[in-house]
Amino acid sequence: MKAPNWMVGRRASSRDVSAADQKIQERLNTVGRSLRRRMSDKIEVLFQESCLSGDVETAESLLAILERMSTRPTQGPDNRRVPLATLERLRAELEQCRTKEEPIDPD
Question: Does residue 106 lie within any of the structural domains?
Fold first, then answer.
């Protein structure tokens, strides 16, 4: 493993080490945020699983939660709203899920 540039050719001062540690921590935080799924993404996955399993009531509840999440005020730099296009797509999926559940009238 190659030594970091700030360590090559001279002794590292405590200021250099703490600056490097801070940069590493900032990078780890950035990577962690990118790997962590948003809550809305997790709810969307549950919504799709509910539709696939035929649990329309749960799918409706999860869609309502996503709709509430999209209208609430945002806080912090990481808080992103659910896009309207996503909500429209999920509404269409829910409608398909409902039509699969409706019994076929034999008359």
Answer: no
Which pLDDT band, with edges at 50, 70 and 90, does 87 fall under? very high
Higher pLDDT, 67 or 13: 67
Domain, as residue range, for 65? 39-72+82-101
Give ∠ CA 88-94-100 in degrees, rounded to 5: 145
Report whether 48 contacts 75 (CB < 8 A).
no
pLDDT digits (tens, 9 = 90+) for 7-42: 555 555 556 668 778 888 887 776 666 566 788 889
The answer to whether residue 17 sits within a structural domain is no
∠ CA 31-35-74 to the nearest 5 degrees? Answer: 95
Residues with Cβ within 8 Å of residue 80, at least 6 apart in sequence: 38, 40, 74
Other C-beta atoms closer than 10 Å to the C-beta of 5 total 8
